[in-house]
Amino acid sequence: MNYQEGIEHMQNIISGLEPNTTDSFNVGNLTITYPGKKKKGDYRLTINGVPPTHTDIVRTIYNYTTSANFDQVVEFLDDVYKNGLNATSTLFPRSFIEKLFWITLQEEINYPSPQYQGRKLPFCRFYEGALSKISSVNLLNVLNRTNNHGSRVPNLYKTGSILRPSFYN
Question: What pLDDT score was predicted for residue 76?
Fold first, then answer.
């Protein structure tokens, strides 16, 4: 499922709900409860009753990244950004692809482009999590930038000759 298919899927199943009712389904260890509180198609995502956060994902990416696999991490992020659940990885487990997709699909539904950045904004922070492992970018700064709710969009770091994904522009 790519992002457009994900948006349509969520909007369609929510359209089929009786008024004032909720429902849910599971994807691996994720529970998706709908409808959410924002736009049509929104949902609540939890793992064992706890909503995952973007900072959780930044930390996971940081922990997986080494100087030896940095390019693979960047290619992985680009693959998920472009292909959603159709992405593949030998570096990250399938459950991580699913978590990344479903948490960023929420952004695509609730903050669509061109008015907002949709999934691009969190993917930029995820890339910066990897970048902080191999450069002078500070992880704590990336985590603070990830939690900048209500503030303006952070400027992107200058990466020089370091590999950048297609969305980091």
Answer: 98
Residue 56 near residue 62, CB atoms below 8 Å: no
Rounded to whole angstroms, the Cα distance separating 64 from 125 reads: 15
Please give the sequence-ordered ranges of beta strands (E in DSSP) within the chain, or none if there are none.
23-27, 30-34, 44-47
The domain locations on the chain are 51-146
Among 82-96, 109-123, 142-156, the range with the most confident prediction by mean pLDDT is 82-96
Q: Which of 39-43, 81-85, 129-133 has the lowest mean pLDDT?
A: 39-43
Helix H or strand E encompassing 100: helix 94-110
In DSSP terms, 30 is beta-bridged to 27, 47
44 φ, ψ to 5°? Answer: -110, 130
